[in-house]
Structure formats: structure tokens, C-alpha cells
Design a protein that fits this description.
The protein is about 25% helix and about 25% strand. The protein is of the alpha+beta class.
Length: about 300
């Protein structure tokens, strides 16, 4: 018997929509059918973010820390400029036209500045000035927040100092609020993630040098459906779940009599996929003998 020797089966957006319509007992007939189905697909992907951990959307991010800067973006945030060399880390830069301000946390390239979340909006083409050095340059393009805004949650973090990684725990909003002196400096030993539309990472103590880096694993958004020929950023084991979920979402609008059945199927498919999509690690049990007594 000859097998296909192929493992590249993949569905695009149009394929999922067609499958979902068939499960609803319907046929795609109009452009609006495609539009409403794509909208439901993107809502389904947003719902998956609320379901919890999906291993394939975890991204490891490294951010250089800067002395006396406590709050950082929850992802990579760079400003593209004509030249970055003359600016100093930790200094405040100001937009000449917009009046927007932020601080420099590092200089990743000759034409980029890593920055804190700005106050105001920097404009493409405007001149920025360093508050300490007096250096000037031109903003090449508007600051892109998409990487930071794709962060759903931070799962774990560590601060690297002199080649050694120190795990730092996450604290709640209330615990972070009650820290009496947030300006205390030292090696950061805990963090709080402020889950705004543009998430920000708040550290304590405030970093005392510009050589430490923070490394964190973050859960990020799944890419949107967009055009109908696109495929999805999901592993093959989630294909049945995605098709079942879209069919359930569409049934609410198109085939209410099938909604209970399709919802049950969707939950079953998601549970199976979620159980498989888990972190695995060795587990060892060592018996203790300290309380045992042996009779001679």
C-alpha cells in the first residue's frame, strides 16, 4: 500500500468558511456571507485569548533595562529615526511639533531608539531633541505599538545580571500599589503587568544600572483572518476546533436549531485540543524514609 508521504494539509480562510456553512446546512452565496463569517472568525480568535494558554502563541522577549526607569512597554517598542548615536540612554526626548515625550531605554541600531510608552503622539517627520545631550534627529515613521498591544499576558520573567538569570515573581495590582517607596533602586526582584490596551511592565525595585536585561515569556494575540486566501497561525491539531467554533458562531445567526449541537461539538473539540496543547516536564517522586521503623 502506498501512502501520500505528505503532511502539509492546510485550510485557508475561505475553506473554513465553506466548512462552517456546510455544518450549518447552508451555502455561501453572497459577499455579505463571506464578510459576516470573517467577522465571526476574528471574534472566535479573540475568544481563544480568553480561554487561556496556547503554547504556539508564546513569545520570549528581551528588553534592556535602564537606570532609574521603572515602567517599560509590555513588548518591543522602538522609534525609527534618522540617527540615534548621539542620544543617551535614560534621557527624555521631546517632539518639536507634537510636544510628545518619552525616555530612551536603549539604542538597538544606528537608526532606532528603544523607548518607554510615550506621553502624546510623535509625528513622522518631526524633529526630536534629547533633554540631556541636546541631540536632535528626525522621526522617520510613526511609532508602531502593534508588538506591545499584541501582548495578552506575561507568564514568567527573569532579570539577567552579569550572565546570571534571576527569576522574578509577579505581584498583584494591590500588592504593587502598597509598595511604600517605588523609587527604591536595586536589581529588580518583582514585576506587575498593567494590562492596558497598550500593556506596561512595572518593576520593583527600580533598576539601578543600564546593563541588566529582563527576559519574559508572553502570551500574544493570534494573527487576524484578513484576506480569504490567508491561512491561520494555528497548529494542525487545532484545525477541527477552529472549524467547529466558526460553525457554532455562524449557527447563532444562520441556523439556531443547530446551535446546541454545534456548541457541544465545539466545546468537545476545544477541550481535546487544549489538553494536548500543554507544557510537559519530567515529574519525579522520591519516597521519604525518615518516619519508617524497621523491626529486627
Amino acid at each position: 500500500m502506498t501512502t501520500s508521504n505528505s503532511t502539509n494539509f492546510e485550510l485557508d480562510v475561505a475553506d473554513y468558511i465553506e466548512e462552517a456553512f456546510e455544518r450549518c446546512g447552508k451555502v455561501v452565496r453572497t459577499g455579505y456571507d463571506l464578510k459576516t463569517a470573517k467577522r465571526s472568525l476574528n471574534l472566535l480568535l479573540a475568544e481563544w485569548a480568553n480561554r487561556g494558554l496556547n503554547q504556539w502563541t508564546i513569545a520570549q522577549t528581551t528588553l534592556p533595562l535602564a537606570a532609574n526607569i521603572r515602567v517599560y512597554p509590555g513588548g518591543t517598542l522602538n522609534m525609527v529615526v534618522a540617527a540615534s548615536a548621539n542620544f543617551a540612554v535614560t534621557e527624555t526626548i521631546t517632539g518639536g511639533t507634537s510636544g510628545a515625550t518619552c525616555q530612551v531605554t536603549s539604542k538597538p541600531t544606528a537608526t532606532a531608539l528603544a523607548i518607554t510608552l510615550p506621553t502624546g503622539v510623535f509625528l513622522a517627520g518631526e524633529t526630536i531633541t534629547g533633554g540631556t545631550t541636546g541631540a536632535t534627529t528626525t522621526v522617520t515613521s510613526a511609532v508602531d505599538f502593534s508588538d506591545v498591544q499584541s501582548t495578552i499576558d506575561i507568564l514568567s520573567a527573569a532579570v539577567r545580571r552579569d550572565g546570571t538569570d534571576f527569576t522574578i515573581p509577579r505581584v498583584s495590582r494591590d500588592d504593587y500599589l502598597t509598595i511604600p517607596n517605588k523609587s527604591t533602586t536595586g536589581r529588580a526582584s518583582q514585576f506587575f503587568l498593567n494590562r492596558l490596551i497598550t500593556p506596561q511592565l512595572e518593576l520593583w525595585p527600580t533598576p539601578d544600572n543600564s546593563t541588566d536585561v529582563i527576559i519574559f515569556n508572553r502570551l500574544t494575540r493570534i494573527q487576524d483572518a484578513d484576506t480569504f486566501i490567508n491561512t491561520f497561525e494555528v497548529p494542525f491539531r487545532f484545525y477541527p476546533c477552529l472549524a467547529a467554533g466558526l460553525a457554532y458562531y455562524l449557527s447563532i445567526k444562520l441556523a439556531a436549531d443547530r446551535t446546541p449541537m454545534l456548541k457541544a461539538l465545539y466545546e468537545e473539540e476545544f477541550d481535546k485540543a487544549a489538553v494536548e496543547d500543554r507544557d510537559r516536564a519530567s515529574f519525579t517522586i522520591s519516597p521519604g524514609y525518615s518516619s519508617l521503623r524497621f523491626n529486627n
